[in-house]
Each structure stands twice: as C-alpha cells, then as structure tokens.
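Subject: Sanity check before I submit

Could someone independently write out the structure tokens for this chain? I want to compare against mine line by line before I put it in a report. The sequence has 260 residues.
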Amino acid sequence: MKIPFFKYQGTGNDFILIDNRKNEYFLSKEQIEKICERRFGIGADGLMLLNERPGYDFEMKYYNADGKEGSMCGNGGRCMIKFVYHLGIHREQYKFLAVDGPHEAEIDIDGIVSLKMKDVRTIKRFHGDYIVDTGSPHYIKMVNHVMEYEVYKKGSEIRHSKEFEDEGINVNFVELTDEPDKIIVRTYERGVEDETLSCGTGVTASALVCYHNENGFNEVEVKTLGGFLSVEFDKSDETRYENIWLCGPAEKVYEGTVEI
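---
Independent answer below. Compare away.
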C-alpha cells in the first residue's frame, strides 16, 4: 500500500504528516519507527495523523520517532496548522484536539503560526533544577555556555536516571543572555532519544521558568539550533501561568508517497 505523506518542519523540528480524515491508515509501531528512521526511511522527529473530530476542525494524533504514541508536541501542532491551511482549511482561529486536550491556533499575515498551549499550574523544583509539564514533561537545567554543552550525554543521563527511566522526560539546557527576555535552549527529547534542533513544549517550559515580569504579561524570545521562537504568557502568581502562546515559523519541506 502506498500512503501519501507530507514533510513539514518548525525551526528544524521535522515531522511526517498524513491526511487520515477518511480513516484509511492504520500504522503499527514498527511501521512508524521505520518511516521516521533517517537512514532507511523518510526521516523525522515524529509522525502525525490528521483525523476528523466532531466539534473541532481536526484531531492531531502524534507519534514519536520510536513509533510510540507521544504526548503533546508544540512544534508539531504548529506544523499541523500550516498543513491544514495548505489543504484548504482556512480559519481566523483554529480549534483542534490533541492528546492533552483542546488547543487554539492562528496564522498571521507573515505565515507565523501561534499555538495556544495548556495552562500551567505549577513549576516543581528538583535538586536545584525545574520540572514543568506543558503537555509533555520537561526537565529544565540552567547552564552557562550552552552551545558548548554536552547535551546528548548529559540529557541522556537525566532522561535514563532512576527517577525518570520508566516514563521518560525531555531535558532542556537553558542559558540566560544579557537581555532578560531572551534565552537559548537546547533539548534532548525522549522518544527521539537524541537532541533535536528545536522542541516547542520544551521552549515553552523554559520560557515559563525564565519569566522577566513577576506578574502580568511576559514575552520571551528563544534561540534554538533550528531558529527562533517566542513564548507569550500571563503570570498571575507563583503557581499560575495562563494564555500561553508558542509562536514561530512552520514550513512545508516536500511531499511524496511511502510504500507500507
């Protein structure tokens, strides 16, 4: 069976997207893993199915590169929005369903996709670092000289430590800059089991930790290996972060068919 697919990327975080609104495709874990493999497959950080969902514009079903169903993917969600736009679904504001619940999204006149993330009620401290759930669980570690940091080695050690080895956790290494509203983030992702060029939920988690206004509106610009993203949010108290929007580019790379 030949399946049409589309390849999209959001700041270097790349995904295979399949239009499954007719409910034609049922892919096994092994098939998804093979498709996402970069040497013998198409290659991607994850695969997403576009499904019909009553009451919403669509449902987004996300799978990690290891073939397992994943948690929320921020850059994946932004790529999905650009995908449905290219399919002819045009909205001033999109409403879709993901594994962590409903989401909203918009595309501005410059093609920038803004995705509303779920509210965050708490940021946990853990051995001097932070743990934040932004639809996916994230470990945040502040470091100096992050561009020279051993992200794969240190990220793998934390992800596979006894506290996190069963469920896994994404590990973000964050450097503050001279400007309080700008940070640099590198991420080791579970499921991919490697560093990715960008991680939307990780960038979001890192920005929340690095707020610059104690209360009220915050906007944090984030540099990743794949480009720039921004995170806007309202911080109302020490444990409440609302109206969280992840903003950045999402582009089609190519399309084709894959034999299953």
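---
OP: Matches mine. For the report I'm noting this point. The first strand starts at residue 2 and ends at 10.
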